[in-house]
Amino acid sequence: MPTDRVSASGITRIGVLTGGGDCPGLNAVIRAVTKDALFHGMEVFGIEDGFLGLIEDRIRPLTNDDVSNILGVGGTILGSSNKANPQKFAVGKNTDGTPVWRDMTDVCMTHLQIHGIQALVVIGGDGTMSAAKPFADRGINCIGVPKTIDNDLWGTDITFGFQTAVAVATDALDRVHTTAASHHRVMVVEVMGRNAGWISLHAGVASGSDVILIPEIPFDLDVVCDFCLKRNQRGKRFSIICASEGAKPKGGKQIIERYDPTSPDPIRLGGIGKWLANEVEQRTEIESRYVVLGHVQRGGTPVPGDRILATLLGDHAMRMLHTGKRNRLVVMQGGILGDVEITAAADKQRLVPLDDPLIEAARSVYTCFGDQ
Ligand code: F6P
Hints:
By secondary structure, the chain is α/β, with parallel strands linked by helices. Helix content is about 35%, strand content about 20%. The protein has ten helices and 15 strands.
C-alpha cells in the first residue's frame, strides 16, 4: 500500500482519459492512477473516448472494481478517439464536404465544473497533450502520460506499447521466415510506426530480417534487389524485408493509404509493402509476397515490460498531483522517471538517430538498410 504519501494538493476529484490511437498498457495506467487516487481519498472520473467524452459529457465514476483485472488487458476500458480535439472539433460538413469546425473548450469546461473535476490525467500522444493545454490554461491541473506503439514521442526514451508492438512484429517476422525459406520467396512485412522506424528497426533486428527499411534512411531499390539476388546466388534462396509503413525510396515519397480531414493528424500511411513486393519481384524475378501487420501490433495483451512501464508512469503522474506539480508530462529519460512541461513534446518527433547503436549492430551482421 502506498503509505508514504499524503496528497497535499487539495485535489479531491480527478478525471482520467485516453486519447489518440490505443496501445497495449493503457489499462495499466488507468489502474495505477485510479487505485492510487482512491487510496488517497480522491474521487476518480473516467472520461469515455478521450476528449470526445468530455465534449459529450460522457463521464463516469471509477471504482476499484472497475480497474480490477485489467492490468494485462489490451486496449482501454475508457475507449479512445483520435479525432476529438476540443479546440477544433468537426460538428458537421459544409456543402463542399469540408468539415465545419467549432471550439468546444467552453463546453468541456462546463462539463468539468459540473462534475467538480479539478485535475485531469491525460494518457496520449503529443496531440492529446496539445489538446489538454487550454484546460491547463483555465486552471485544470493536467498531468500527461505518454503512450504510443511508435515510440516517437519527444522527451521520453521509451513509450509503453512499443515493446508489445515489437514482440508482435518479431513473432510475425519469425513465422514469415519459415514460409519464405520453404518457398524460396522474398517476403515483405510492413510494420507501423508513422514517420519513425523504431518498430521496424527493433523487430527487424530481433528477427534477423535481411533487409530493414526505415523512414530515416531512404532506400535505393536497386540496392535492395541486388542484396536479395546476391543472397540467392550464395544459396540463401529467400529474403525477409521488414519495412516501416513510412519507409520511402531515395528521392521518392511515402505512400499514403488514406486521408482523414476530421483527424488532427489526417495522414494514414500504408502500402509500401505491396509496392515493394511487386517491384522486387519484377526486377529480380524472385517470387515475392507481402504482409501488412497493421493494427495487430496495437491490440492484445501487453508484454510485461509495457505493464511495468505503464504502472511506473501512472504512479509518477499521481506523485505529480500529490506534490502539487502542475501541467507536467511524465517522462522516462536515461532510465529515470522525470517530467517536462505538458506541451514540451508538441509538434516534435523522436526519430531514429542515424548513429543509433542498433543500426550499427545490424550492419555488422550484414543487415541491409537499402542505402549501401
Ligand atoms: O500512432 C500509432 C499508429 O498505430 C501508427 O503506427 C499508425 O500509422 C496509425 O496509428 C494508424 O492510425 P489509425 O488507427 O487511425 O488507422
